[in-house]
Design goal:
single chain, 377 residues, alpha/beta, Aspartate Aminotransferase, domain 2, Aspartate Aminotransferase, domain 1, seven-stranded mixed β-sheet, 12 helices, globular, binds pyridoxal-5'-phosphate, alanine--glyoxylate transaminase
């Protein structure tokens, strides 16, 4: 129940144990086609250009940046946690001019702030993280795609810990490029990074004046293996078992339906917060509209947080996590990057997002807080 990987669905683990097919054999190419089809549903796009990058979420991140930016071009990075910081680092390595649009951990960006930055810098790419898992912030994308179009900017969104857990309408919202990860709301093992480009984004890649600096992640080559351009040729050995897993994960998503899946994530988030609040715990993210349902962040450090209540001294967050693991077999995580030592993080994602698991998390919190005399036994 940490911020990922979530437990994998047993159906997905079973799919992953099936015999290997050759990575260029027609039956396997059909499985790749079905993965692409499932991803279209998941991203809510009609774009032909979906695939699963071979690697974890970072592979998707690096693939998007390496292909969408040429040396000397500008990227504005919405940076409100560890992922924005990493994108700044990565884009710099590929020779981009990086504008680090930083805001406090625990906050999202308003459309007005994003518009001002894009109008000022006219970047080739605007990066936003829909679900900031180091802070538990949900970034609204309302109006952002349209604003980017007006300014000739591509909108790139990280959905590693949000895709499948919260709404995403890539086409309707004008999101040009998205990457994600397999191990969070999709309930598969880590190792696959779903990615999507729309026509605008693909055109940008095809009109590059310079070669993509990464051979392994070059979408001219990887896209060809996934059939984006008509023919299909070998680029690297496809991750056969991983893509069986992803195909099964996408089938499970389609069986439940996205609306039902998003509602399930919302419901367990509410259930958990009802319980946590009854113990006197509070969300790290002050604005209710900014709270991410998939990765929940809970104030853990003694002291006062903004306008919120003060957390009493004497609560040892790490001791609570250790007790949860030792006694309940439940992973509760601490903070990361800007939130290290300040919060607990509880993931409610995919296969794990169910009421019984929330009850277990609440029992572990209750017990941990009682042991530390924060709650009466
Ligand atoms: C929002 C977000 N982006 C990117 C990543 C990186 O993904 P990975 O660790 O799978 O490479 C993570 C991982 O936790 C994440 O939560």
């Amino acid at each position: 129940m940490g911020p990922g990987p979530a437990n994998a669905d047993p159906r997905i683990l079973a799919a992953q144990s099936l015999p290997l097919l050759g990575h260029m054999h027609p039956p396997f190419l059909k499985i790749m086609d079905e993965v692409q089809q499932g991803l279209r549903y998941l991203f809510q796009t009609d774009s032909k250009y979906t695939l699963c990058a071979s690697g974890t979420g970072h592979a998707g991140m690096e693939m998007a940046i390496a292909n969408l930016l040429e040396p000397g071009e500008t990227i504005v990075v919405g940076n409100n946690g560890i992922w924005g910081t990493r994108v700044c680092d990565m884009a710099g390595r590929f020779g981009a001019k990086v504008v680090n649009l930083q805001t406090e951990a625990g906050k999202s960006f308003s459309l007005a702030e994003l518009t001002a930055a894009v109008e000022q810098h006219k970047p080739a790419v605007l990066f936003l993280c829909q679900g900031e898992s180091s802070t538990g912030v949900h970034q609204s994308l309302a109006g952002v795609g349209e604003m980017c179009r007006k300014n000739g900017t591509l909108l790139l969104v990280d959905t590693v810990c949000s895709l499948g857990g919260v709404p995403m309408y890539a086409d309707a919202w004008g999101v040009d490029a998205i990457y994600s990860g397999s191990q969070k709301c999709l309930s598969a093992p880590p190792g696959g990074a779903p990615l999507m480009l729309n026509d605008r984004a693909l055109q940008k890649v095809q009109n590059r004046k310079t070669k993509v600096r990464s051979y392994y992640l070059d979408l001219h080559l990887v896209g060809d293996y996934w059939g984006w351009y008509g023919s299909r040729s070998y680029h690297h050995t496809g991750m056969v078992s991983m893509w069986y897993a992803l195909r099964e994960a996408l089938a499970i998503v389609a069986e439940e339906g996205l609306d039902a899946m998003w509602a399930r994530h919302e419901a367990v988030h509410k259930q958990m917060w009802d319980g946590l609040r009854s113990m006197g715990l509070e969300p790290f993210v002050e604005d209710p509209n900014d709270r991410l349902v998939t990765v929940n962040t809970i104030k853990a450090r003694a002291g006062c947080y903004g306008a919120g209540r003060c957390v009493p001294a004497g609560v040892d967050w790490a001791a609570l996590c250790k007790n949860a693991m030792d006694k309940y077999n439940v992973e509760i995580a601490g903070g990361l990057g800007p939130t290290a030592g300040k919060i607990w993080r509880v993931g409610l994602m995919g296969y794990n997002a169910k009421p019984a698991n929330v009850e277990l998390v609440l029992a572990a919190f209750r017990d941990g807080l009682q042991q530390q005399n924060y709650l009466k036994a």
